[in-house]
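Final report, section 2: Outcomes. Of the targets proposed, Cytochrome c biogenesis protein CcsA is the one most frequently requested by collaborating groups, and we therefore present its record in full.
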Amino acid sequence: MDLVILENFLDNASFFVLLLTMLIYWIGTAFPSLTWFPTLGTTGGIIANLLIATLLGARWLEGGYFPLSNLYESLFFLAWGITTTYLIVESMVGISLIGAVTTPIAMAITAFATISLPSDMRVSSPLVPALKSNWLMMHVSVMMLSYSALMVGSVMAIAFLIITRDQDISLRGSSVGTGSYRNSSLKEFPKNHEKEILLNTNDAFITKNNLSPQHLNLADKLDNLSYRIIGLGFPLLTIGIIAGAVWANEAWGSYWSWDPKETWALITWLVFAAYLHARITKDWQGRRPAILAAGGFIAVWVCYLGVNLLGNGLHSYGWFL
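The predicted structure is given below as tokens.
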């Protein structure tokens, strides 16, 4: 009983800390003069991450297996993965906007898990025979980490689209050959190209410029971050799909059965494969790949949650149907 009380406290506390952290990030973004707000937001993100990790650890001790056997546990694991990813990226590049656009997603996930799920879906229960396998940790954890990275990368692309609005953006050189994050210094083009701005030395152009240099710098960083984070999540997704196929063959005697979950995993893989291919295509830079990444954000959610709740396949939780 004490463990149940602890879990209830941890899931509610993680939600409220993420809600407060989101508001702090938003205030810090709206009022840049409040220079200590980003640090406070990062602190809140770390606290929320530790609360979720403690909750998952308690579930692990309670059930005796890796806490990814039901929707409640996987939602909190996803929220933990998202907060971990954004905190690492934020510490590397120092852009508080990452937390401002990412924490609402983690907060919404914890709210859904804490408030909306029926109580019987939150209870830790013995594993069904098909889940009593080492593949549970190997396949599901890798898939959830890939979802986390792909969601954060896609949100960066959506933020890029919002900042650049309807501007004609072309960021050539942002995908390959840079080796690291680009210097964000700006310098003006010659007068015969007065509507164009050159970003650093990587042949990255932003045309039809109606944005401030600060917004251009931020858009450039978000575009680069999106590409690199998705570039991390895509191999994880590939490994997770392969591991899932091997596990399916072991459990059900078939590597691939076109289950709704498997189908949408393939669709998600194809969307992000198209995005990564577009990023190394000369005429596909800037907004068009970002739109693909934004579509990938929707595909991940359908793959993870949509088919689980609404489908009738082997991976379905069957809450709505």
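Residues 176-207 have pLDDT under 50 and may be disordered.
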